[in-house]
Amino acid sequence: MSAAPEHGYEWHHEPYPAIGPHTVEDWLDLPPTADGSRIELILGYPHVTPPPSGKHRFAMTRLIRPVEDALTEAARADLYAVCEVNVEIPTAFRTALVPDVVILNRPPTEVSFPAGDLALAVEIWSPGNTLAEREFKVRGYAGAGVPFFWAVDQPSELSELKLTAYRLDNGKYVEENVLKPGDETTITAAPVPVTLDAARLVI
Fold first, then answer.
1. Taking the complete model, does pTM exceed 0.70, yes or no?
2. CA-to-CA distance for 98 and 14, rounded, in angstroms?
3. Domains in the chain, ordered, with CATH?
4. Distances (CA, A) of 28 to 38, 83, 135, 188
5. How many C-beta atoms surround the C-beta of residue 23 within 10 A?
6. Are 166 and 190 in contact (CB under 8 A)?
7. Which is nearest to 101 in space by CA: 115, 71, 80, 121?
8. Consecutive sets of 10 residues in the chain, 203 residues long: mean pLDDT of each?
9. Neighbours of 2 (CB within 10 A)
10. Please, which residues have CB within 8 angstroms of residue 113's CB and are 6 or more apart in sequence?
């Protein structure tokens, strides 16, 4: 486990592009895609990504299991672990996202949820996620007050498998835990402690 509260999420401070014309309400009115592609709204522009790969979905499934176990062990019947829900970011930046895994503080009975209903958001980054896209998403969760955020970097030629858990502190995510394969670690940057070996997330 790595506990490093002095290390926050690394921003590159690129200027925001002009905000697009589409609103969160426009996004909510979009019909589902025929092939399962995700449509998110980033800075007022629809952002389409291909359907998650088999490896991506495997990581989601293997991640949500220990989260559910931790909620059960902690007797937190008021929290719900769910995959791929629509999240409305209530800021002027016209953003709506579909995180891979969330913990909700209300029953998952709606089609979409305000960010205030999230106790945790998890993004499993794919090689196609640009740095700017990642930063805008993380800024969106932080700006909306989501108290915990996890980023999972999938293994590739350029990066190793890693899960980094952040805690919101004065509007900024601060790194609290870093998990790499082969070392079962308890994540403390979470609504309840979650014990996990990152090796579980890959085939």
1. yes
2. 23
3. 24-201 (3.90.1570.10)
4. 13, 18, 23, 34
5. 13
6. no
7. 121
8. 41 60 91 89 90 93 97 98 93 88 97 95 89 90 96 86 97 96 95 96 90
9. 13
10. 85, 86, 87, 88, 102, 104, 106
